[in-house]
């Protein structure tokens, strides 16, 4: 075999390996979490007590009404790498169906529910909140608003929905998400194994552009 032919075969083999490796990496990319609107009830001013436990308000006795839930997950990029040090916020209506916002004047609100909370992801991209299982209010299926503020990147907002909730089928914003991407914003609310919570839910958030088909 001539040196030129041998060199050509080596280059072709290397190119084939690189193509296969790149295709494999592309095939394993995680699908990004679909973005959604922040809605009209993002706090005009965060409460003084805005930690990651929404079920207790500093200076009041007792805990919030509703089904106490531990919500946790990881913040990842499309390659599955954890995103650490990112601020994550959640907000939702209380068990009476009212947001703690001046524009929401429907009925009495639960004074023991914080309504809004935040945390920061750890080195493994993990986050955790204690809140309540979301409840419906007029025109909307149960949901939790989620905002992510990665360091050096634009904020990202989405909404988390309850898997198996019948009202999802009639919710306009949920149905704006393409059908093959709706699973990316659903979480199972299952019996909790840790003390102090009735339910647990896991919701991983993947950042990285517009979701693919």
Question: What would a concise description of this structure say?
Answer:
The protein is an alpha/beta fold. The chain is built from two helices and ten strands.
How widely separated are the two ends? 48 Å
Shape: globular
Looking at CATH, which topology of the largest domain would you report?
A: Protocatechuate 3,4-Dioxygenase, subunit A
Helix content: 10-25%
What this model shows, in words?
The structure is a single chain. The protein is α/β, with parallel strands linked by helices and 213 residues long. The protein folds into two domains: 1-29; 31-207, Protocatechuate 3,4-Dioxygenase, subunit A (Sandwich). 14% of the residues lie in helices and 24% in strands. β5 (143-149) and β6 (156-162) form a beta hairpin. The longest helix is centred in the N-terminal third of the chain and has 25 residues, at 3-27.
List the helices and strands and how they pair.
Layout: H1 3-27, E1 68-77, E2 87-91, E3 116-120, E4 126-132, E5 143-149, E6 156-162, H2 172-176, E7 186-187, E8 190-191, E9 199-202, E10 205-207
Parallel strand pairs: 1-9, 1-10, 6-7
Antiparallel strand pairs: 1-4, 2-3, 2-5, 5-6, 8-9
């Amino acid at each position: 075999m001539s040196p030129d032919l041998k060199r050509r075969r080596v280059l072709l083999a290397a190119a084939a390996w690189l193509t296969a490796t790149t295709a494999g990496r592309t095939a394993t990319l995680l699908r990004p979490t679909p973005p959604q609107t922040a809605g009209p009830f993002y706090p005009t001013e965060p409460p003084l007590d805005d930690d990651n436990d929404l079920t207790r308000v500093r200076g009041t006795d007792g805990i919030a009404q509703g089904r106490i839930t531990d919500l946790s997950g990881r913040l990842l990029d499309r390659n599955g790498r954890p995103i650490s040090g990112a601020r994550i916020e959640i907000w939702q209506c209380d068990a009476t169906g009212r947001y703690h916002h001046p524009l929401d004047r429907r009925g009495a609100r639960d004074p023991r529910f914080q309504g809004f909370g935040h945390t920061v992801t750890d080195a493994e991209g993990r986050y955790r909140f204690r809140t309540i299982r979301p409840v419906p209010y007029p025109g909307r299926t149960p949901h939790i608003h989620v905002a992510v503020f990665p360091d050096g990147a634009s904020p990202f907002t989405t909404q988390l929905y309850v898997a198996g909730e019948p009202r999802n089928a009639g919710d306009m914003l949920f149905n704006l998400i393409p059908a093959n991407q709706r699973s990316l914003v659903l979480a199972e609310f299952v019996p909790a194994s840790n003390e102090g919570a009735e339910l647990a839910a896991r919701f991983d958030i993947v950042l990285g552009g517009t979701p693919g088909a």
